[in-house]
From TrEMBL:
UniProt keyword annotation of Signal present: yes
PANTHER family linked: POLYGALACTURONASE
Gene Ontology annotations for the cellular component aspect, listed alphabetically: extracellular region
Catalysed reaction equations from the record: (1,4-alpha-D-galacturonosyl)n+m + H2O = (1,4-alpha-D-galacturonosyl)n + (1,4-alpha-D-galacturonosyl)m
Any single biological process term in GO: cell wall organization
Residues making up the signal peptide according to the UniProt record: 1-17
Keywords of this entry: Cell wall biogenesis/degradation, Disulfide bond, Glycosidase, Hydrolase, Repeat, Signal
EC number: 3.2.1.15
InterPro entries xrefs: Glyco_hydro_28 (IPR000743), Glycosyl_hydrlase_28 (IPR050434), PbH1 (IPR006626), Pectin_lyas_fold (IPR012334), Pectin_lyase_fold/virulence (IPR011050)
GO molecular function, one term: polygalacturonase activity
Official protein name in the record: endo-polygalacturonase
Alphabetical list of PROSITE patterns matching this protein: POLYGALACTURONASE
Organism: Rhizoctonia solani
Length: 333
């Protein structure tokens, strides 16, 4: 009896010790290659076009390395998206300077997600931990990155180039064609975004909820600046550092915005330090608890404390306001 029990236990131990994924290299040159490639711990992405209306979705084995070896273009279709998504833990994503092209001009109508044709957004859905670096996003239809990392994530040396959306087109009624092209929509914890360049027509980064977030040494051009919020009911934003960024030709430079009707929400321990802004069009610094109406009636149910503005060099245009503060009763500074 003892001998037979020992034989039965042996294969169980062997199965438990087996590696989670294959130590192989998978190559993706079309969506047909994804299922097999993501079983490997190294994934190489070659240049190809993703069919319209499809998501290029990667679910990676823990500890995988992903290398871009070519540019990826997305076919055009009026659908909700996203165009690309990646999930996994402890992933190393190397863009190697290659591009995800969202073909924004085929969608842009000056309305973004507020109307007009349906636009896939976010373009890029990031649900991984580890490192994500040296990736270019060109012409997103609307929002660029949505980030929901499961553990610590460092995003670095990224480029978002929606500069073509600054101009009007035949569908935008004289307004900038690109709209709602937020660079990073953040609702997460343990995230660093650094050494990146963002040219867009909305918030460079919008931190809607989360904690332990660092945004540093980035350049934001042409949009709505660096924003905490908008903060909605039940959301908390805390322990955020906005450090040594350059903000060029934005409507606002540094902003905190909470919704007027928000309840059970808080903004605490936020540091703005070493940031430089030039060509600011509307507000250098704005703290506004009346969102979505700019400087409207402030709500009283979002607690705000521990907000620190260190040395920041903010230059505004002649018709802009340097500082505006619109606080409710729970805004203690």
């Amino acid at each position: 009896m003892r001998f037979s029990l020992a034989l039965f236990a042996l294969p169980v131990a062997l199965v438990a010790a087996a590696p989670a994924g294959k130590r192989c290299t998978g190559t993706i040159a079309s969506l047909n290659d994804v299922a097999a490639a993501q079983k490997c711990t190294t994934i190489n992405i070659k240049g190809f076009t993703v069919p319209a209306g499809k998501t290029f979705a990667l679910t990676c084995i823990s500890g995988s390395t992903v290398n871009m070896l070519g540019d990826v273009k997305f076919g055009v279709a009026n659908w909700k998206g996203p165009l690309f998504s990646i999930s996994g833990t402890n992933i190393k994503f190397n863009g190697n300077g290659h591009t995800f092209d969202g073909q924004g001009p085929s969608y842009w109508d000056g309305q973004g997600g507020n109307g007009g044709v349906t636009k896939p957004h976010p373009m890029m859905k990031i649900k991984m931990s580890g490192t994500y670096s040296n990736v270019k996003v060109l012409n997103s239809p609307a929002h660029v990155y949505s980030i929901a990392n499961p553990a610590k994530l460092v995003m670095s040396k990224l480029t978002v180039d929606n500069s073509a959306g600054d101009k009007a087109n035949s569908k935008s009624g004289g307004k900038a064609a690109g709209h709602n092209t937020d660079g990073f929509d953040v609702s997460t914890t343990d995230l660093t975004i650094e050494d990146s360049n963002i040219h867009n027509q909305d918030d460079c980064i919008a931190i809607n909820k989360g904690s332990n977030i660092i945004f540093q040494r980035n350049t934001c051009t042409g949009g709505h600046g660096i924003s905490i919020g908008s903060v909605s009911a039940g959301a908390t934003v805390k322990n955020v550092q906005i450090l040594n960024n350059k903000i060029v030709n934005n409507d606002q430079a540094l902003r905190i915005k909470t919704k007027a009707d928000a309840t059970n929400a808080a903004v605490t321990n936020i540091v703005f330090k070493g940031n430089t802004a030039t060509g600011t069009n509307k507000y250098g610094v704005i703290v506004d608890q009346g969102y979505p109406t700019t400087l409207g009636k402030a709500g009283n149910n979002v607690a705000m404390s521990g907000i620190t503005f260190g040395t920041n060099n903010i230059a505004v245009n002649s018709n802009a306001q340097r500082v505006a503060v619109n606080c409710g009763s729970k805004c203690t500074g």
